[in-house]
Amino acid sequence: MESSRPAPASLPFLTFLGRPFTLDLRALALLRAAVAGVVLLDLGIRSTDLEAHYSNQGVLPVAALYDHLWTPYQFSLHAATGLWQLQALLFGLAAGCAVALLLGYHTRLATLLSWILLVSVQNRNPMIGQGGDDLLRMLLFWGLFLPWGRVWSRDARQRGPVLSYAYCSAATVAYVVQLALLYWCTALLKFGPEWTQQGTALYYALSLDQLVLPLGKVLYPYPALLRILTLGTWYGELLVPFLLFLPFGVRRARLAFLFLTLSFHLGVSLTLFVGLFFIICSVAGLGLLPASTLSWLQTQALRLWAYWQQHAAKTRQFALHWPRLPWRLEQQPTGLGPATRVLLRGAREAVVGVLLLYVCWWNLDGIATTPSLLMSEPLRWLGYAFRVDQHWGMFAPTVFKDDGWYILEGSTPDGRLLDLNRGGQPASYGKPAAVVSLFSNDRWRKYSENYLFVSNEWMRPYYCNYLLRKWRENPANPPLSHLVVVYMKEVSLPDYQVAEPTREVLCECQ
């Protein structure tokens, strides 16, 4: 009978092809800790607007969520209540799970709970979401299938020693492909001439006062430089991901990928107000760190640990009760037999493979023009249910040109006009020195962007009434008879031309 095992001559070829997808367990551990840190940071930012963004007294009551933004396949624990106090409890639970993930304590369970709670809070208010949220969600999703708690974790103390830090599976393939999809899809979606021919996309991006930061204003007057940066961005997003799939020079290719993408996102974060997007994208690549870099980091960490133990332990008893280093592993026998483990591993690989194909198809559907490649609506339930749906259309296909600033015009009974957006100062229609400073965080900036679209006209009264109610709750504020949400629209024009702002009334409430 013919053996099903591959011929020995084929093994080197398979190993060669697997090199781009072989990751270091220590890199995965760093990825786990960094993702947990970002989840905690995200929770901290979101928690400043518990009432505004997640309660029935805020800008999106649960009833409005179900009426306008819900699909029958979604779930959200946060949508089960309209009380901000219960939202705070869910936020605290999510923070606890993220801390457990950071420490690598019951890592698989902590990953699952963190993913569920992240999906839940994102589903509660889609109007404040951005591309970084999709990436953070997918990192946790693929993390469910990655052994990112195998080393440098609390769980590692109860596992046997690793024979090799090198690890390759369907999950590592999914992780690498997901990073490539992020850049490939955003490049292919940028098919407007501003990106591919004229090189004016960054000029228009830096024309947006709602986004531009001081360094962006410094670069703005140099059209030739902006054209080079625009074309460099587009070609970089299109070509740099190929470095991830080279089966030779893997270490150098990965370091080049990390350097180029980190430099790119750092440049974006210094010129445009993009919230956590820069941090999430930078963290996402940590799983690619090569073994040589990780060995150096581990050596430095061991030296710091030894120094701390020598100088910080006040008593011998304190030192004895301090937990040992997570990479000092102990043997713990597992209850599963070899055959069962092989069967479970095969099932996991098959599930991850199917999910990866589905994710690739979803992304292909977003950029394809051929009807035969499009995903039919009945097949989309899986993407919505497990939130593997994703769209990487950042500044695509062209840059948004309807710029401007908000004036929250409140009228007092004695006829005065106050701007609530500036703490109740007399209303003025001139452009603020820094429009971006009017937003307390990127969630509010994204909400204000969605607020403009005619298709989202239904959401406007909720925001107006929320602002008026919050103003009246403070007895020190002068009384208001009604409030008008005004948008001073200033369309970005080519060649540094200045458009005359126009006053648009988006909503009125009493």
UniProtKB/TrEMBL annotation:
Q: What is this protein called?
A: HTTM domain-containing protein
Boundaries of every HTTM-like domain copy: 20-293
Membrane-spanning residues where? 25-45, 83-105, 165-189, 232-250, 256-289
Major location, coarse class?
membrane
Membrane topology type, per the record? Multi-pass membrane protein
The listed locations are: Endomembrane system
Alphabetically sorted, this entry's keywords are: Membrane, Transmembrane, Transmembrane helix
Origin organism is Hymenobacter cellulosivorans
Is Magnesium tagged as a keyword?
no
